[in-house]
Write a structure and sequence with these properties.
By secondary structure, the protein is mainly alpha-helical. Among the domains are: about 110 residues, Alpha Horseshoe (Serine Threonine Protein Phosphatase 5, Tetratricopeptide repeat); about 170 residues, no CATH class. The chain is built from 32 helices and 2 strands. It has a two-stranded antiparallel sheet. Strand 1 and strand 2 form a beta hairpin. It is flat. Belongs to the EFR3 family. It is a lipid-anchor.
Length: about 750
């Protein structure tokens, strides 16, 4: 009877005209509510089906007094059904999802009806859908027959829940995104679903693909806020949130960052710094209080790697000019420690600084890998390059390597980097299939401005005794990429001079380098000159390089990359007794290249780096700190320091007085001129004549004094001239015979 009654109601509902439907709906919804309250699953499903039919009817006039609170609560409850029979449980859950879908369709477009986006409704609807999405493993764990599988596919609550969630998010306007996302974050927290991260990633993939693209950055902001709120949660939870962020950023592409570009990176860098502190202190609080969680260092490291990957994901979605801003922002966060830190007090601080430097440089490398810019001048602003290169002179070998890798990723714009990953002396450069473009005007300007700075840092890095094979490979790549990407004739000449100077470092060995470091520098020079000679295509140059390499193969194979850059390098300790035939000679190279139009004068001049205060004072200081230290030392040592008067305090009154005084002086000068003019116009002739006569007399007396001094004979070098009898005699020499120095004659 219930079924017949409901069918009659359904048919009445369908037959109702739009104008009169409001009168009938209240009775209809009461009947549906009664069915939903029933304990019999069949009646609950019947009531749901009737409600879905009603939800699909479009009404012309809104109903102000109708409330769907009961339906939202009841359908959400049905979504969580835990009936003993699996089939009945699935049907009830399916009905619950369909019911929620009906409520959303009925209310979402009508602002005058109950607002479905209110947190009280969203906190029920979203978790109900996620609960059914989450149970996909449970339903898939049984292995049904193919026929059952086909049926299950039709009736799967998981798929229905996903479709309903997509529909809900697709209808969300700008102001409603927050209310829709917050329950998702709470659900993932409550059920500890960040740690395996598979489900969390799946959820946010659905969200990012469903919402309108212009709202993407709101989801990212919610996730970033949630990451901040969980900054003291376990590293695995934070890593899960960060990896979800990374996925979301890739999907949202250019819409992921929104208007506050640097705020996104600031949050991620802050989390990175916090993680370093946690790993060092072993606690989430500064003081190790009671009940603090034990931090696992390897988990924190995983989290740090996840943050770095996410920074790269975000940066890759930005346009070039914003990527450049982000890199400057990250570089400014890198701590460049000063030498004033005391070793005892600063041990923990030094560790923190080192880890922060490495993590931030890793982040910078991640950003620079996806950075493509044709104009190096805009890609590397002076302030950024100065800071980056000052980090290249630090004693920490790992930091130096990161700086080299970052520079390589900037310079390599045609993907040639991998072709120079192994150092070797290949006889034919064409097998590398290099992509070479003509050096542009902007690149020439860049090298004129920063070339010497780059050469100097390459030279100084070569002198470090803590270099390993990776450093030499990076140096080789950098030299080759500068030669291909940024080199005109002048740059090529400078690079050859630089490599010959590096050979000299190994040859003279003033820095007491190990045998490996010396052999590595010889091998690096051989590999570079071998390729550069083939790039310049000057036959005599190629011949000289080839001869030296052949001689090394016979006499000293340990000076070639094939023997040095291997797992077990074959070295020699008798490096100081090498013959001249195994070296590349500057005179010979300048001669052969000079004959082909290269600047032989410049080629024959040995390369000497321009050492700056930065190098002289300390390896670890940035340029800014060096200057401030220099100024401080000068002021401290100055003898005038005590005598120096205190600087006058400039106030508004002082400025006002200065302006008034200058006006008064001008007035006085004007008055004096007026009096002089007036005197000559109105005074009697005798008075003017007497005044001028007095001035003339004064002038005459001055001239007479000058003439007297000029005509008087000058003293001899010894003061007097002594005659044979020992009596002094004065000689008067006329003025016109006197010899004046050339500088005094006009």
């Amino acid at each position: 009877y219930v079924c017949i009654a409901m069918e009659a109601l359904d048919q009445l509902l369908m037959a109702c005209h739009c104008q009169s439907i409001n009168l009938f709906v209240e009775s209809f919804l009461k009947m549906v509510a009664k069915l939903l309250e029933s304990e019999k699953p069949n009646l609950q499903i019947l009531g749901t089906n009737s409600f879905v039919k009603f939800a699909n009817i479009e009404e012309d006039t809104p109903s102000y007094h109708r409330s769907y609170d009961f339906f939202v609560s009841r359908f959400s409850e049905m979504c969580h059904s835990s009936h003993d029979d699996l089939d009945i449980r699935t049907k009830i859950r399916m009905s619950g999802i369909k019911g929620l879908q009906g409520v959303v369709r009925k209310t979402v477009n009508d602002e005058l009806q109950a607002n479905i986006w209110d947190p009280q409704h969203m906190d029920k609807i979203v978790p109900s859908l996620l609960f059914n999405l989450q149970n996909v493993e449970e339903t898939e764990s049984r292995s049904p027959s193919p026929l059952q599988a086909a049926e299950k596919e039709k009736e799967s609550p998981t798929e229905l829940a996903e479709r309903c969630l997509r529909e809900l998010l697709g209808r969300a306007a700008y102001g409603n995104i927050k209310n829709a996302i917050k329950p998702v974050l709470i659900h993932l927290d409550n059920h500890s679903l960040w740690e395996p991260k598979i489900f969390a990633t799946c959820c946010f993939r659905i969200i990012m693909y469903s919402i309108q693209p212009q709202h993407s950055h709101l989801v990212i902001q919610q996730l970033l806020g949630h990451l901040d709120a969980n900054s003291k949660s376990a590293a695995t939870v934070r890593a899960g949130i960060v990896e979800v962020l990374s996925e979301a950023a890739v999907i949202a592409a250019s819409g992921s960052v929104g208007p506050t570009v640097l705020e996104v990176f600031n949050t991620l860098l802050r989390q990175l710094r916090l993680s370093i502190d946690y790993a060092l202190t072993g606690s989430y609080d500064c003081g190790a209080g009671v009940g603090t969680k034990i931090i696992k260092e390897h988990e924190e490291r995983m989290f740090q790697e996840a943050v770095i990957k996410t920074i790269g994901s975000f940066a890759s979605t930005l346009p070039t000019y914003q990527q450049s801003e982000v890199m400057v922002f990250i570089m400014n966060k890198v701590p460049l420690p000063s030498s004033q830190q005391s070793i005892e007090a600063g041990k923990a601080g030094e560790n923190r600084n080192r880890l922060t430097q490495i993590m931030l440089l890793k982040s910078l490398l991640q950003v620079s890998v996806g950075f493509q810019c044709s104009n190096m001048l805009t890609a590397l602003p002076s302030a950024f390059l100065d800071r980056l290169l000052s980090a290249a002179l630090m004693e920490d070998a790992e930091i130096r390597l990161f700086v080299l890798e970052i520079l390589i990723s900037f310079i390599d714009r045609h993907g040639n980097r991998q072709k120079f990953s192994t150092i070797s002396t290949i006889s034919d450069i064409s097998v590398l299939k290099l992509k070479v473009d003509k050096c542009s005007r902007q690149d020439t300007v860049f090298m004129k401005k920063h070339g010497q700075q780059l050469y100097r840092h390459i030279y100084l890095i070569c002198k470090e005794d803590s270099n390993v094979q990776a450093h030499y490979e990076a140096l080789y790549s950098m030299l080759m990429l500068i030669s291909i990407e940024l080199a005109n004739e002048e740059v090529m000449v400078d690079l050859i001079r630089l490599v010959l100077a590096v050979q000299e470092i190994a040859q003279i060995n003033e820095d007491n380098l190990t045998a490996y470091n010396r052999c590595a520098l010889f091998a690096l020079g051989a590999a570079y000159l071998n390729l550069i000679s083939q790039l310049t295509t000057v036959p005599t140059f190629c011949q000289h390089i080839h001869e030296v390499i052949q001689m090394r193969q016979k006499e000293a194979p340990y000076l070639l990359p094939e023997d040095v850059f291997v797992e077990r390098p074959r070295l020699s300790k008798s490096l100081d007794r090498l013959g001249p035939e195994v070296f590349f000679w500057q005179s010979k190279i300048s001669e052969v290249l000079g004959g082909s139009g290269y600047n032989s004068d410049r080629l024959s001049t040995p390369y000497i780096p321009q050492l700056t205060d930065e190098d002289r004072l300390s390896k670890r200081k940035s340029i800014g700190e060096t200057i401030s230290l220099q100024v401080e030392v000068e002021s401290r040592n100055s003898p005038e320091r005590e005598q120096r008067a205190p600087a006058e305090e400039i106030t508004y009154e002082t400025l006002k007085k200065a302006i008034v005084d200058s006006v008064a002086v001008e007035e006085q000068e004007r008055e004096r001129r007026r009096q002089v003019v007036e005197k000559f116009q109105k005074a009697p002739f005798e008075e003017i004549a007497a005044h001028c006569g007095a001035r003339a007399t004064l002038l005459q007396s001055k001239l007479n004094q000058i003439f007297e001094i000029t005509i008087r004979p000058p003293p001899s070098p010894s003061g007097t001239i002594t005659a044979a009898y020992g009596q002094p005699q004065n000689h008067s020499i006329p003025v016109y015979e006197m010899k004046f120095p050339d500088l005094c004659v006009y």
